[in-house]
DNA sequence: CTGAAAGCGCTAACAG
DNA sequence: CTGTTAGCGCTTTCAG
């Protein structure tokens, strides 16, 4: 029924070892033999069984991808970059949603390891102590993209979040902005902390402080933007920094609905830089993260680990740009 | 090094068959034995090798998902529904981007089959003759969600696109709208045709016809909305039906930038119903497709095929609703 | 350049 | 309830 390497060998009058060599591009096969084998492969429509191959070779050419929410554009954009590179290096990807739930995340790691993936790339979530311990005890390489583990022990690809927020705040201060608000949370607590740290650093240099009431944590979706706006409006912010674009758009609309002029009375800037930023009026100002590249470079880094190549730099910091569009002055 | 079922067996002083039974929840094990085995499993931190298991059992509890573009919200929303059901039934998913390229699509099918997936779910793309032939010649079940193959031979989950467009056109005609335009294309040619057929049917009943110059095909992204608007504006449409939300939003903005009042002078309605519809002002009117369910039901259908359950209905038509929001009168 | 043979780690009859 | 025994389909020494 399903035809195997053995069928091909018999039909081509060679041993299965030779068929294996042909299939794997081993040069030690006489051209004539190779041709004959290839002819039989085509004729019989032979398709190598990757599972058997994986068992025998202890390599599956498969990498696992852990993502908090695939329907979040930020992550699907990272996934896109990473997939392209994976394909380029002939790896398949198993993408799993963790829902940012530590238990699910742990299960996913377990599944992935039991599937014998050659590597894992982690795009955001919690990375509980349990999971971290599991990672430490396995020899399967793990790379983190677009977020960070708590102690930065894992190889990672990121931008400098703190630096970006620092820059933004400095500019706003020059404009005379006094009251800031910060909205973040959700999938990457570490990035959130970095951004907040950056804000507080500059503010402190100017003998100012971030009002705790002006810090909103919560989900990162559109409707959470409304909630955030309502929660913050009593602090009368003149500028809001918001991690998520989608949520920032919610804030823009909630503010507009409340009769607040953007950017004249309220400036808004986001960090995710998905293609949503151009889909609002005024267009959303944001930190231009190279999303595709964060995914792509992460996967490239992982391939280096999987092939045991030299790693120059296990922590890659990619450049960012700040694009001041319509929601800032 | 990596510990196997054999190590557990030796340590627990049972045969590997017994360990296998415990791991697989086979009831034919004395509780005391089961407990002892479980203790050893935990102590040794044994993790079954899914690859070996797959080879021996000829089942991988993995399904392949083929998607034209994971960063397209429409598809990532389907993927979300499908993933949840897959997880519920203990299947893992391998998601691959086809980029709507027949060659890549074919390769993906090949890879998936060589990985011995238990089933495949197809979310949109081309389904070339080659690929269709490959599907026919394999015993691995394939289900299509949110689109259709040309001859509807494969099990599929959809809404009635033609009916939806018919309804929309009838309403617009009642309002006295005379000049229609249609924008579609991209990932599901079949859905596009269905929508267009629906439009033309009603128009014909009213002795009208769709101006060929008022039909625009192309990509489905925001910037393509601008292009579409420019290409169509000479036909002076009073209403535009557009498959993609993202593209529809592009049209809305392009029209607004041209000084056209929406919905007074131009009505716009889309079909994808992603959460983008609420992220524009005015809010986008659209056909409310049950995206999550289209994915979820597709996966459920696939599990039935994989378990060889009875199938009542290989073509599932899910209900839709039309939500007339701000971009229609 | 080619073949023989020994597994990879597990499941699944088959006995008992 | 438990153990023995064949494989699953392929890669990989090791000889020659």
Short précis:
Two copies of one chain form a homodimer. The first copy, chain A, has 329 residues and is an alpha/beta fold. Chain A has twelve helices and twelve strands.
Fold topology:
2 copies of one chain form a homodimer.
Chain A (H helix, E strand, L loop, with lengths): L4 H8 L3 H8 L7 H14 L5 H8 L4 E6 L5 H16 L3 E6 L4 H13 L4 E4 L6 H9 L4 E4 L10 E3 L2 H14 L5 E5 L4 H17 L9 E3 L4 H11 L6 E4 L2 H13 L9 E4 L14 E4 L2 H16 L8 E3 L3 E3 L6
Parallel strand pairs in A: 1-2, 1-3, 3-4, 4-5, 5-11, 6-7, 6-8, 8-9, 9-10
Antiparallel strand pairs in A: 10-12
Chain A binds a DNA duplex (16 and 16 nucleotides) through helix 2 and helix 4.
Word description of this protein:
The structure is a homodimer of 329-residue chains. Chain A has helices at residues 5-12, 16-23, 31-44, 50-57, 73-88, 102-114, 129-137, 161-174, 189-205, 222-232, 245-257, 291-306, and strands spanning 62-67, 92-97, 119-122, 142-145, 156-158, 180-184, 215-217, 239-242, 267-270, 285-288, 315-317, 321-323. The first copy, chain A, is of the alpha/beta class and 329 residues long. Chain A folds into three domains: 5-48, Orthogonal Bundle (434 Repressor (Amino-terminal Domain)), CATH 1.10.260.40; 61-159 and 292-318, Rossmann fold (3-Layer(aba) Sandwich), CATH 3.40.50; 161-288, Response regulator (Rossmann fold, 3-Layer(aba) Sandwich). In chain A, helix 10 (222-232) packs across helix 11. The mean pLDDT of chain A is 92. The interface between A and B is large, with 48 and 48 residues. The structure holds a DNA duplex (16 and 16 nucleotides). Chains A, B: One of its GO terms (molecular function) is DNA-binding transcription factor activity.
């Amino acid at each position: 029924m399903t035809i195997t390497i053995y069928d091909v060998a018999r039909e081509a009058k060679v041993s299965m070892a030779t068929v294996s060599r042909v299939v794997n591009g081993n040069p030690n096969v006489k051209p004539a033999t190779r041709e004959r084998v290839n002819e039989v492969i085509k004729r019989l429509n032979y398709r190598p069984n990757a599972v058997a191959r994986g068992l025998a070779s202890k390599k599956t050419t498969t990498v696992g991808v852990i993502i908090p929410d695939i329907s979040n554009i930020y992550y699907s954009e990272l996934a896109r970059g990473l997939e392209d590179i994976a394909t380029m290096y002939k790896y398949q990807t198993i993408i799993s949603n963790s829902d940012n739930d530590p238990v699910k995340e742990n299960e996913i790691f377990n599944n992935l390891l039991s599937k014998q993936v050659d590597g894992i790339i982690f795009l955001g979530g919690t990375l509980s102590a349990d999971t971290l311990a599991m990672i430490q005890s396995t020899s399967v390489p793990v790379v983190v993209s677009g977020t960070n583990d708590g102690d930065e022990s894992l190889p990672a690809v990121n931008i400098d979040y703190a630096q970006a927020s620092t820059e933004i705040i400095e500019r706003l201060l020059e404009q005379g902005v006094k009251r800031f608000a910060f909205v973040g949370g959700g999938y990457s607590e570490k990035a959130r902390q970095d951004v907040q740290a950056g804000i507080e650093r500059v503010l402190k240099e100017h003998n100012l402080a971030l009002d705790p009431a002006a810090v909103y944590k919560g989900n990162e979706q559109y409707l959470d933007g409304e909630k955030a706006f309502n929660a913050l409006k009593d602090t009368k912010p003149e500028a809001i920094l918001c991690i998520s674009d989608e949520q920032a758009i919610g804030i823009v609309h909630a503010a507009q609905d409340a009769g607040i002029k953007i950017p004249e009375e309220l400036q808004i800037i986001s960090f995710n830089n998905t293609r949503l930023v151009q889909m609002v009026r005024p267009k959303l100002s944001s930190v231009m993260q190279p999303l595709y590249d964060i995914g792509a470079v992460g996967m490239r880094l992982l391939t280096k680990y999987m092939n045991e190549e030299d790693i120059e730099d296990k922590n890659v910091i990619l450049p960012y740009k700040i694009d001041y569009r319509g929601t800032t002055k």
